[in-house]
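Thread: quick sanity check before group meeting

JM: Hey all, I'm pulling together slides for Thursday and realized we never actually wrote out the predicted structure for the chain we discussed last week. Dropping the sequence here so it's in one place. If anyone has concerns about the input, flag it before I start.
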Amino acid sequence: MILSILHSLAAAAGCLLAARILLHYFQLESYQFPGYFRTLKRNLFKSLLPGVCMAALTAVSLFVLRRLTGNAWLRLAAAAAVLAGGGYLTGKNCSEKHAKKAFVLTARVKRLYAVSAIVMTLVLRLAVFAAGENGTAADLAVILFPLFLPAWVALCGLLAWPVEKAISEMYFRDAQRILRERSDLIRIGITGSWGKTSVKFILGTILEEKYHTLVTPASFNTPMGVTKVIRSRLEPAHRFFVAEMGARHVGDIKEMCRLVHPRLGILTSVGPQHLDTFKTVERVAKTKYELINALPEEGEAFFADDHGICAELYEKTRIRKHLTGLDPERDEIWAEDIRYSPEGSSFILCTGEKRVPCDTQLLGELNIRNILLCASVALSVGLSAEQIARGISKIAPVEHRLQLIRHPGGPNVIDDAFNSNIRGAQQAFQVLKQFPGKRMVITPGMVELGDREYEMNREFGAAMAGCCDIAVLVGRKRSEAIAQGLKEKGFPEESIRVTGSLEEAAGVMRELAGAGDTVLFENDLPDHYTES
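JM (edit): ok, ran it. Output follows.
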């Protein structure tokens, strides 16, 4: 009996070590079960492989090792070594080799490992007990157990959820307390289908001309991410707190506002993003507008004038509101005399009362619009036009967002890897057209667009056709729609190269792009979207 229990414990430990990629998928999907199951379906072979390997190793531990030695304890030690060592090697070899967002052993993951070890051991013991403890049926139960590894990870995540919810709520309430005690702190929420991160960093740079400002780092845009920033980085000297608010489900922004309680709200855009979870653009708009609904009566709302959904939401807003864009007839703040070059952009910032010349390292019209949105906020909180212009000159390109990287003696690279929307892609293509020499685009296209994914990737390809000489498409299945869009616009088929991975695409770049040429990396898919 003791030997059987110890063997079950070893089998559970091996399975848990082998399940590394499954836990990584769960982490990438923010521990959300619908997203986790979609990822499993999308990566079916990778998801099932660890369990198949462990089933084979379990069979070896049960049948082969029994014949190698008659000593029961020696057999157990050998089986434990095979299961634990095999599980470790399986987990290591089945995980993503060049993960863009690495698997991180956070405190939550460590707790999940602990829960999983207990749950898997108990489930395995119950299966063996039900099969009669000894004999062929019990052996079969142990061998088949790993084949359901994706389901066991989900079960363990579900059983750990109440504990995680309690811990999260404790940290959440502590962050709320910290903000409550800072009545002097002006809080700004930023949301939108795209442009959130760029606007956040642009605004932070401009506000720093007058006020000490805390901006959530990188893409920290979830309740727990923002909670961590508040608890670890907010200082008494900060006068402004700028929080990016991401969303993949209706109610996500409302939850963020329950934490931050913003006084100023910025809506950068509304469009077909995350349609795999939102299903319709109308639900996207409803969720983004949760930020404006959460503002107090004395609050202010800032909208980008897109002549579309954002403008419609501006019209329905009743609190103090501002609209910015490129239309002097309707926008409160606009830009004139816009000029672009490979070195950056220049324009005249128009406030109705003043005309201030501005220069920025940022590329493209979309970045000009983002700057105008931030200038509107800065004017509202007391910065002068001159301070704003000085802040604009200091804005550094946001990493992976139309970031120009020059390589002396080699091609220029425009890194737009974090962009994943058609509007931003069109802007990137227009920027690429301004560069001399041969122009190349490397892209896997766009994801998380639900039923519209094929249609929008075809549109993406059509938009690409007029700006580049060579199109390098990453992913043999997903690239079909992009290639169709390119061909529909008369793009030469011999100039389309389809590769299986980003590494292979980089090899094409080294082969075909030389000094004076320009390569645009447009979007880079998350690890759980790469093709097997």
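AS: nice. The CA atoms of residues 404 and 414 lie 5 Å apart. Residues 182-393 form a domain with the UDP-N-acetylmuramoyl-L-alanine:D-glutamate ligase fold (CATH 3.40.1190.10).
JM: adding both to the slides.
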